[in-house]
Please model this.
Amino acid sequence: MDADKNAAAPPAPVAARSPCKQSPHHGQKQQRKAKSDQRNSKPKRRRQSLKQPLTKDMPRVMSELLKEPKVALLHRVVKHVGPKVAWQLLRETLRLEKDGGQQVNAQGSGKPELFLVVDELSHEFKPRRRTSGGVFFTLLKDKVSKEVYRSIYEVEDKKKKDAKKRARSRQRQRMDSTLAKLGFGDLTLSAAGAQEDTEAAAAEDGEVAEAMQL
Model:
């Protein structure tokens, strides 16, 4: 009897823990977190948007994007129309170039044969495509007034007139040299050439650069 009393009592059974009830929103949070992790793991695509540069750098940047070598001309564009309008015209130019570009106004040039190319598909003569700079300045011409456009191109027009004048002078000198070799030294084209230069300069006043008419 005493032995039975001294025997250790069996341990009481441990009640099994019931699993904790999870909130119904817990699973939704985990799903959202998993989707967020997947999105973050993918490389982000950068938006290919052109950020407007500083005004002092804009002519150089525009020259690079348009492949236009006349940086001084782009300086005058930014000066006369402002950086905001100049950059808007650039963006519109790049959009048109992406969509196929523009054709040169061959008939309006007065010398269409210089601006026609053979189409590879139809084998017919068609106006060639404008350069990026040509598209930009065409948009500029439609955007600003004639006075502003002339102010921008004033220097370019003067350069073209001076180049034509030098070309005519060289041609007269060659003709005078030829006449002298043939024994007609008393004949000269200098006087007539000076008169031609005066008349040509008067006729060219107010002309817009030929390249910008195309």
Remarks:
- The beta strands are 116-118, 125-127.
- The radius of gyration is 40 Å.
